[in-house]
Specification:
Structural class: mainly beta
Oligomer: single chain
Distance between the termini: 40 Å
Shape: globular
Helix content: under 10%
Largest sheet: 7 strands, mixed
Radius of gyration: 13 Å
Number of strands: 11
Number of helices: 0
Length: about 130
């Protein structure tokens, strides 16, 4: 059974930082592209960041580019999202997800990801 478990969320003041982790079990992720998404109350789930299997290429949404960094440690089966200079609009539940495609560009649509975690809450106070 494939499981993705996020951690590292919490309450932080605007301008602060958090580091999210996502540990994957039941499946090796060394060939998977991985992504982070988020969903705020009353809003659709939106793309945040994605990373290739090797970790050499990343892609970010315009709203987080320059502030967030996605990385991975395939040996540990773990994905990270370093979030700096957090803003109140970053408040959401953050999800990690695995995309099993191996060709083409990094995916930004949630529907193209096969495996999902349960999410971790990030709340930024202004």
């Amino acid at each position: 059974q494939v499981q993705l478990v996020e951690s590292g969320g919490g309450l932080v003041q605007a301008g602060g930082s958090l580091r999210l982790s996502c540990v994957v079990s039941g499946r090796t992720i060394r060939n998977d592209r991985m992504g982070w998404f988020r969903q705020a109350p009353g809003r659709e789930r939106e793309f945040v960041a994605a990373i290739t299997a090797s970790g050499t290429t990343t892609y970010y949404s315009d709203s987080v580019r320059g502030r967030f960094t996605i990385s991975r440690d395939n040996a540990k089966g773990t994905i990270y999202l370093q979030m700096n200079n957090l803003k109140s609009e970053d408040t959401a539940v953050y999800y990690c997800a695995a995309n099993t495609s191996t060709l083409g560009r990094l995916r930004v649509s949630a529907g193209e990801y096969s495996y999902w975690g349960q999410g971790t809450q990030v709340t930024v106070s202004s």
